[in-house]
């Protein structure tokens, strides 16, 4: 299993994405939709504006009616990647890997897998300076665009306001939205955005990213915690507070998962210490349910 530290150390996002996906795509099923591919599926009546090259002229000569040959192709859906790039994603695990580093690797690998499956991929990076959005495309250069956007992203500030987020949900387009976030929010703003995205696109896979030192509370002695988004500080003794911290965290994780599922999201918790394989398999399972 390739560790996230190893993939990050490659300092080559395209290579890391390919390596992370190795072995997962073998035998993966491609969903199918009607289109202009090679395998014949059915006829349908001609409509103004249709491509005349797809007309069946022999059938037209026999029936005096115009029909198009519909076929099946292997492009099946739009995958919309949403990466949280607010300041809390700068939190580093004991391995030196930040949540943003892991999120970049994960989004790159998801984009690679989706592209290999024939899907159109889009990317939205959320930060207070405004949305960075690449619309969905399935052309050969889209991966390069996505990799560049991810490589040049830095985490900063708080979650964008509702006016900044409005363009994301203004247009309804069927898609599988995959959000990578630590879900640290002030007043439910991430939950509201994902609820609107689900209404606009249909499906949401929420990948909740946590650092292992948060989950296991590996801190020792007197320590000062700082909220990376507000600057608020909290001083405590790690040994005295470990049990209470872990109890509070586990309750928050249970509540978060329950709320996400009550909104109809597919929820999956990740650790920055885990290989990317689990999240990629979750995507492929969700895609296969289609």
Characterization of this structure:
The protein is built from 10 helices and 11 strands. It is an alpha/beta fold. The strands form 3 sheets. The protein has a 6-stranded mixed β-sheet with strand order 6-5-4-7-8-11, with helices on both faces. The radius of gyration is 22 Å and the shape is elongated. Mean pLDDT is 85; it is low at 29-41 and 71-75. Residues 42-246 form the DUF58 domain. Pfam families: DUF58.
Short description:
It comes from Hymenobacter swuensis DY53. This is DUF58 domain-containing protein. This protein has 290 residues and is of the alpha/beta class.
Describe the secondary-structure layout.
Layout: H1 4-9, H2 13-21, E1 33-35, E2 39-45, H3 57-63, E3 67-73, E4 78-84, H4 99-116, E5 120-126, E6 132-137, H5 142-151, H6 162-170, E7 175-181, H7 189-201, E8 202-210, H8 212-216, E9 222-226, E10 233-237, H9 238-262, E11 266-271, H10 277-289
Parallel strand pairs: 4-5, 4-7, 7-8, 8-11
Antiparallel strand pairs: 1-3, 2-3, 5-6, 9-10
Helix pairs in contact: 2-4, 4-5, 6-7
């Amino acid at each position: 299993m390739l560790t996230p530290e190893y993939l990050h150390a490659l300092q080559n996002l395209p290579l890391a994405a390919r390596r992370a996906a190795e072995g997962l795509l073998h035998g993966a099923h491609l969903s199918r939709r009607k289109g202009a591919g090679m395998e014949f599926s059915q006829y349908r009546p001609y409509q103004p504006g249709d491509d005349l090259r797809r007309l069946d002229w022999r059938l037209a000569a026999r029936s005096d009616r115009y029909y198009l040959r519909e076929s099946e192709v292997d492009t099946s859906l739009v995958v919309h990647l949403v990466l949280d790039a607010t300041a809390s994603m700068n939190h580093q695990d004991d391995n030196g890997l930040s949540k943003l580093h892991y999120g970049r690797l994960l989004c790159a690998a998801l984009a690679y897998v989706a592209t290999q499956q024939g899907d159109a991929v889009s990317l939205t990076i959320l930060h207070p300076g405004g949305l960075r959005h690449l619309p969905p495309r399935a052309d050969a250069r889209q991966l390069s665009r996505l990799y560049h956007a991810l490589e040049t992203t830095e985490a900063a500030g708080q979650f964008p306001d509702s006016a900044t987020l409005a363009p994301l949900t203004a247009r309804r387009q069927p898609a599988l939205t995959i959000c990578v976030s630590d879900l640290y929010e002030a007043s439910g703003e991430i939950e509201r955005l994902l609820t609107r995205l689900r209404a606009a696109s249909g499906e949401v896979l929420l990948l909740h990213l946590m650092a292992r030192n948060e989950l296991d509370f590996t801190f020792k002695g007197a320590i000062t915690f700082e909220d990376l988004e507000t600057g608020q500080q909290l001083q405590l003794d790690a040994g005295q507070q470990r049990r209470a911290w872990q109890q509070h965290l586990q309750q928050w994780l249970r509540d978060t998962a329950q709320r996400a599922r009550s909104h109809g999201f597919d929820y999956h918790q990740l650790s920055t210490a885990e290989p990317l394989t689990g999240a990629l398999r979750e995507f492929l399972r969700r895609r296969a349910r289609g």
